[in-house]
Specification:
About 3% of the residues have low confidence. A hairpin with a 2-residue loop joins strand 1 and strand 2. By secondary structure, this protein is an alpha+beta fold.
Length: 178
């Protein structure tokens, strides 16, 4: 009978130790799922837009307005990177205008942070250091029109003379473009 009581006591004690270890483990894991500081949670949030993210760089302004929700942190910064995540710009706030930037693919991000180092134009975001957390990104496709130039003429037409006013098939050509 004493052996049975000792065995139950030992198993019960072992069970409490295992539970305690598991609880501590899960607390540690939950704390690392978000960047935590002694000031609270840092969460990058989620960004989205209702604007078209494929734009034509045609000299007309095409702004993209982004909305940020769920961000937490002492500071927040908008970041525009190229496709390889190199920082192109650090704008203050939406909307973002890409006219004059040239063709290519870029991404819009938000980063929430307490401390962040290397947050500069030209730096890859993988080289940032400190307490920070990124939002998701919005991919923007910047297309540059390259239609070329229509060349032909001069042409003369007389309205009402009874002769059809048509341009010959080889009367206009396109020079340049792609």
């Amino acid at each position: 009978m004493k052996k049975e009581v000792r065995l139950k006591f030992t198993l019960l004690g072992l069970w409490h130790v295992v539970n305690t270890v598991l609880i501590v483990f899960f607390l540690l894991v939950s704390q690392t799922s978000n960047a935590r500081t002694n000031k609270g949670i840092i969460q990058g949030g989620k960004i989205g837009t209702k604007d078209n993210t494929t734009i034509c760089l045609d000299g007309n302004s095409h702004s993209i307005d982004a909305v940020l929700i769920g961000a937490e942190g002492k500071f927040q910064q908008w970041i525009i990177t190229d496709y390889d995540n190199n920082v192109l710009a650090l704008p203050k706030a939406p909307p973002f205008n890409f006219e004059g930037t040239g063709a290519g693919i870029c991404k819009i991000w938000s980063v929430s942070y307490k401390d962040i180092f290397n947050l500069e134009v030209g730096v890859n975001i993988t080289d940032f250091e400190g307490w920070f957390h990124f939002s998701n990104s919005i991919t923007v496709y910047r297309n540059q029109p390259d239609a070329g130039e229509l060349v032909g003429g001069p042409f003369e037409f007389y309205v009402g003379d009874g002769i059809a006013d048509n341009i010959p098939e080889d009367g206009i050509t396109i020079e340049g473009g792609g």
